[in-house]
């Protein structure tokens, strides 16, 4: 149970439609992350996240680019759970450690193309898709195209589900995240 009374489901406690997805996650990852266990309460939410995760793998981004964008989106959404998880997932796909650290600290990355991606993904997230023509032009000047612009939306949609769910449930970190804990900058404040 999380602080906000969300159940950390497993295949025995989840609704039947979620149990099948949890089994697939277990097979793919070797364990079921707490995020998936929280999302399992709603088969629709779990399926949406699992489906978007798979679709995100089909974007035109390399694994490194995808993780740079994810980390940038997560930073803007201030999700401590996903930042810890994606820091380690980024390491698994060989994102440079200084790039991971820079994004976690809200600083530019040293690679110009990846920095353009970081800036654009952050702007799309922070401004809910409302970015200037100059921001689009700068992203394209770094070698990205309209497909990449739309692919950023796929990544942002994926993280919207996970980041927001983690905020609402206060999802506890998984053991594999140890050492990658993160304190959000605290710009977002709860309202109402």
Q: Could you walk me through the main structural features you see in this protein, from its secondary elements to its overall organization?
A:
- The protein is built from nine helices and no strands.
- The chain has about 190 residues and is an all-alpha fold.
- It folds into two domains: about 15-55, no CATH class; about 65-175, AhpD-like, CATH 1.20.1290.
- It is globular and about 50 Å long.
- The model has no long low-confidence stretch (mean pLDDT about 95).
Please identify, by name, the CATH architecture of the largest domain. Up-down Bundle
| Structural class by helix and strand composition | mainly alpha
- The CATH topology annotation of the largest domain reads as AhpD-like
Give the C-level CATH assignment of the largest domain.
Mainly Alpha
Helical coverage, percent range: 55-70%
Number of helices: 9
**Quaternary form:** single chain
Mean pLDDT: 96
Strand and helix order: HHHHHHHHH
Approximate strand percentage: under 5%
CATH superfamily of the largest domain: AhpD-like
Low-confidence stretches: none
Largest sheet: none
**Whole-Å distance between the termini?**
24 Å
Radius of gyration: 17 Å
Indicate how many domains the architecture comprises: 2
Tally of extended strands?
Answer: 0
**Overall geometric form:** globular
Quick recap:
This protein is mostly helical. It is built from 9 helices and no strands.
């Amino acid at each position: 149970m999380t602080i906000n009374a969300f159940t950390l489901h497993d295949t025995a406690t989840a609704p039947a439609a979620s149990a099948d997805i949890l089994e697939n996650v277990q097979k793919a990852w070797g364990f079921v992350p707490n995020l998936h266990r929280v999302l399992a309460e709603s088969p629709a939410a779990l399926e949406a996240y699992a489906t978007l995760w798979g679709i995100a793998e089909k974007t035109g981004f390399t694994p490194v680019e995808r993780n740079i964008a994810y980390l940038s989106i997560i930073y803007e959404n201030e999700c401590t759970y996903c930042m810890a998880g994606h820091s380690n997932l980024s390491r698994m796909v060989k994102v440079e450690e200084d790039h991971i650290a820079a994004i976690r600290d809200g600083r530019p990355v040293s690679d110009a193309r990846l920095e353009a991606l970081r800036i654009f993904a952050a702007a799309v997230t922070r401004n809910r898709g409302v970015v200037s023509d100059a921001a689009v032009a700068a992203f394209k000047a770094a070698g990205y195209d309209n497909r990449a612009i739309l692919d950023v939306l796929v990544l942002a949609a994926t993280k919207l589900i996970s980041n927001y769910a983690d905020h609402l449930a206060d999802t506890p970190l998984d053991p594999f995240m140890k050492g990658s804990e993160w304190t959000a900058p605290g710009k977002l404040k709860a309202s109402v």
